[in-house]
Amino acid sequence: MRDLALLVIIGWCFLQAFRRPWIGILGWTWLSIMNPHQLSWTLSTMPFAAAIGGATLLGLFMTKDRRDYSQSREGIVLLLFMAWMCITLPFSIIFSDSFDLWKRVMKIDLMILVAMVLIHSKRHIMLLAWVLVFSIGFYGVKGGAFTLATGGSYRVWGPESTYIEGNNEIALAIVIVIPLMRFLQMQMQAKWAKTTMTVCMALMAMAALGSHSRGALLALVAMGLVLWWRGKNKLLGAVVLLVLGAVMLSMMPQEWWDRMNTIKTYEQDDSALGRINAWHMAYNLATDRIFGGGFMVSSPGVFAIYAPEPGRVHAAHSIYFMVLGEHGFIGLFLYLTLFTMVFLSAGHLRVKGVAQPETRWLSDLGSMLQVSLAGFAVGGAFLSLTYWDLPYNLLILAVAGRRWLARKEWAHEKEEPLIWWPEFIKKRFAKKRAALP
């Protein structure tokens, strides 16, 4: 029954993608981020994301909906980064493995560019935020409940055969999405809805702690500091954050504390030493080769040449050193420039959005995007989610929000309101009854 329901939803998204490709973008994002088919019994190997992506590309040229082909600085830098990865590919040390990952990365980045063309209205932006929150919130809320039920004795893991399968990866994804949940909560009016979202955010934070990821802990601390700094009443904010942190940390077992304490004694931790060795290898590789080593450089042959400890082969587990080793200093410069621009665009929304009541939702969006990016910047220093879709979806939200603000659509364009599904169903049935003779 679950597989049939999933198949119906995916089929609907596929058909809608031809006529309304922005729905295809939402469906493709949902499949790419959440990977719901991995939770099914018979559909896990089906290329649903590719099918909806292809339908969306066709719909891009067939639809009568408005499309925005204007270039943003983020879009231009992303194109430059894609071009640089194409240049570095032929110089890959292990070409066959690099080519496979290159194809995957190019598909993701292409759909990000398409999304920037199709996502342009407030309704699109809000729905994309909901898709991201639901896709990761499903695992985060469930993982937080699991952590509470088990006292944190077991780790929270992501869905198998996905980018976020590991405990570190799912933890960073959860951290990135928590501020988006707060953004949606700020737009809610009903008290029960706000309370529900508060509970969900608390469970998400518990899931991040329950992953036993040290990078996630640092990312949560970074986000908490940004929220505290942005708050109007810093004394009250500090007290609230300290109390919440103390309550959550008190629920974690001694095993968790022992693992977190290795942050201070990293020189005695084999995993930490392996990462540091991989970082040195990436730096030496980038210094020796202007194009880097291409994708997939974590191999014994590469470590034998460039690592201080050749026998300690370890993934970099860092978005920065991963790009540095694979695409050199130029690639790292483009990557950092891209997300710096996203952060600045979010800041522009935060400052300019407060000017009018109709644009204050953009101020909320920009503020929470900056919090998400702070968590990504800190957590990503110790985790590998360099090419995954979720951080690039923050880019889409920032670019679409800034375009909306520039056009001042709030002054002359009527947006379709976001309504709850029960009300939507009532209206549909009312229209059908009115059409009957």
From TrEMBL:
<feature type="transmembrane region" description="Helical">
    <location>
        <begin position="126"/>
        <end position="146"/>
    </location>
</feature>
<feature type="transmembrane region" description="Helical">
    <location>
        <begin position="43"/>
        <end position="63"/>
    </location>
</feature>
<keyword id="KW-0472">Membrane</keyword>
<feature type="transmembrane region" description="Helical">
    <location>
        <begin position="75"/>
        <end position="95"/>
    </location>
</feature>
<keyword id="KW-0436">Ligase</keyword>
<dbReference type="InterPro" id="IPR051533">
    <property type="entry name" value="WaaL-like"/>
</dbReference>
<dbReference type="GO" id="GO:0016874">
    <property type="term" value="F:ligase activity"/>
</dbReference>
<feature type="transmembrane region" description="Helical">
    <location>
        <begin position="290"/>
        <end position="307"/>
    </location>
</feature>
<dbReference type="Pfam" id="PF19358">
    <property type="entry name" value="DUF5935"/>
</dbReference>
<dbReference type="InterPro" id="IPR045979">
    <property type="entry name" value="DUF5935"/>
</dbReference>
<feature type="transmembrane region" description="Helical">
    <location>
        <begin position="101"/>
        <end position="119"/>
    </location>
</feature>
<feature type="domain" description="DUF5935">
    <location>
        <begin position="1"/>
        <end position="186"/>
    </location>
</feature>
<keyword id="KW-1133">Transmembrane helix</keyword>
<keyword id="KW-0812">Transmembrane</keyword>
<feature type="transmembrane region" description="Helical">
    <location>
        <begin position="166"/>
        <end position="184"/>
    </location>
</feature>
<feature type="transmembrane region" description="Helical">
    <location>
        <begin position="196"/>
        <end position="229"/>
    </location>
</feature>
<feature type="transmembrane region" description="Helical">
    <location>
        <begin position="319"/>
        <end position="344"/>
    </location>
</feature>
<feature type="domain" description="O-antigen ligase-related">
    <location>
        <begin position="200"/>
        <end position="336"/>
    </location>
</feature>
<dbReference type="InterPro" id="IPR007016">
    <property type="entry name" value="O-antigen_ligase-rel_domated"/>
</dbReference>
<dbReference type="InterPro" id="IPR017528">
    <property type="entry name" value="CHP03097O-antigen_lig-rel"/>
</dbReference>
<protein>
    <submittedName>
        <fullName>O-glycosylation ligase, exosortase A system-associated</fullName>
    </submittedName>
</protein>
<dbReference type="Pfam" id="PF04932">
    <property type="entry name" value="Wzy_C"/>
</dbReference>
<feature type="transmembrane region" description="Helical">
    <location>
        <begin position="235"/>
        <end position="252"/>
    </location>
</feature>
<feature type="transmembrane region" description="Helical">
    <location>
        <begin position="365"/>
        <end position="388"/>
    </location>
</feature>
